[in-house]
Structure formats: C-alpha cells, structure tokens
Amino acid sequence: MSVQERTYIMVKPDGVQRSLVGEIISRFEKRGFKLIALKLVHATPEHLEKHYADLKGKAFFPGLIKYMASGPVVAMVWQGLDAVKTGRVMLGATNPLASNPGTIRGDYALAVGRNICHGSDAVESAEKEIALWFPEGVVQYTNSQESWVFEL
Ligand code: GDP
Ligand code: MG
C-alpha cells in the first residue's frame, strides 16, 4: 500500500453508452485519487484478448470480448493510497446483483455481462494493464490537494 499506488480503471462500452463516464470519473476524483492518464478508445478484439488473457477458456470469454469491442471504452489510470483495493471496493462485486448499493455496479448495473466498469485486481495486474493500455506512458504532475488528502 502506498500513496503512489496506481490502478487501471475502465468505463466499459455499456457505461459509455449509458452516459456514466462523468459519474464514474467524479467518484474517483471526489474520493481523492489523482487522474494520471485518460483516453477514449475503441479497442480491437486482439487487444481485449490480451487484457482478459487470464479468462481465456471461460465459457463467457467470446461474449465478453464481443461486448468489450462493441463500442468505445474510457481507459484511465488513477493514483493514490491503496488505489487497487479501494478502486475494487468502489466498483463493487463482479456480479452487480451482489454489489452493495453505494458502489458503482451496485448503483448502476444489474447483469454480470453488462457491469459497466473494470478495475485492476492486484498491483501486479494493474501495472500490466497500464502498460497494455498506455504504452505511451502516463502524465506526472503534482496535485495541489495532496497534502490535504494524505498524511505527507
Ligand atoms: P472483474 O475483475 O470484477 O471485472 O471480474 P473478472 O475478472 O472475473 O471478469 C471480467 C469480466 O468478465 C467481468 O467484469 C464481467 O463483465 C465478465 N464476466 C465475469 N464472469 C462472468 C459470467 O459468469 N458471465 C458473463 N456473461 N460475464 C462474466
Ligand atoms: Mg478482473
């Protein structure tokens, strides 16, 4: 856990179509995380197969790739204390039916195959996903609120 920890957060095609981009960004901003990379991408199935390589072989894998390639996604990197674990808590459980109200999926989604957002599940996978989606690198800058958000 560190204040420099980074996580890869993505608004999936259904989140973009349902106009939830601003809402999802807003939750991470207000929580105190720092946005260090952001772009709208219509990813290819090949790229998405790399992102979800761990799930290859699952029965839902072809449907997952088709869903994720069906429209643009918003790819983001957020930085801050315990960003990976806290990001997952903010997203809620994978299946929105099990996600608590107050979480993004618990407030805006119903079906596991249309759960509107992605968040890295470990620091190691976050770093892999950041490299995959942002080969150009992220943006380094100082956020003037940092000393009010963290005990620096
Ligand atoms: P996540 O880390 O919470 O996103 O969950 P996983 O890494 O286990 O799965 C990746 C994504 O695949 C999920 O967010 C869902 O969109 C989808 N997915 C996972 N399990 C299922 C399933 O049983 N059925 C369907 N249709 N999609 C699933
Ligand atoms: Mg996952």
From TrEMBL:
Transmembrane segments: none annotated. ATP binds at K12, F60, R88, T94, R105, N115. Its cofactor is Mg(2+). InterPro entries: NDK-like_dom, NDK-like_dom_sf, Nucleoside_diP_kinase, Nucleoside_diP_kinase_AS. It comes from the Eukaryota. Keywords: ATP-binding, Kinase, Nucleotide-binding, Transferase. Residues 4-141 form the Nucleoside diphosphate kinase-like domain. GO terms for molecular function: ATP binding; nucleoside diphosphate kinase activity. It catalyses: a 2'-deoxyribonucleoside 5'-diphosphate + ATP = a 2'-deoxyribonucleoside 5'-triphosphate + ADP. Its EC number is 2.7.4.6. The active site is at H118 (pros-phosphohistidine intermediate). One of its GO terms (biological process) is CTP biosynthetic process. Belongs to the NDK family. NCBIfam families: PRK00668.1. This is Nucleoside diphosphate kinase.
